Amino acid sequence: MKKTAKHEYVAPWEKAFDSVLTPLDDFIHRQTTSGILLMLCAVVAIFIANSQWSETYHHLLAIPFTIGIPGFQLSKSLHHWINDGLMALFFFVIGLELKREILVGELANIKLALLPIIAAVGGMLVPVLIYVSINPEGPALNGWGVPMATDIAFAIGVLALLGNRIPKSLLTFLIALAIVDDLGAVLVIALFYTETINVYALAFAAVTMVLLIAFNLGGIRRASPYILGGLVLWVAMLQSGVHATLAGIFLAFTIPMRPKYNASRFLVQINEMVTQIKRAYQHEENIVKNDELRSRVRALGDGVLLVQAPAQIMERKMHIPSAYIIIPVFSLANAGIPIDWASIGSVITHPVSVGITAGLVFGKLIGIAGFSWIAVKLGITSLPGGLNFKHIIGVSLMGGIGFTMSIFIAELGFAQSAENLLMAKTGILLASVLAGGSGFIWLFLTAKKIEDN
Question: Are 358 and 291 contained in the same domain?
Answer without folding.
Answer: no
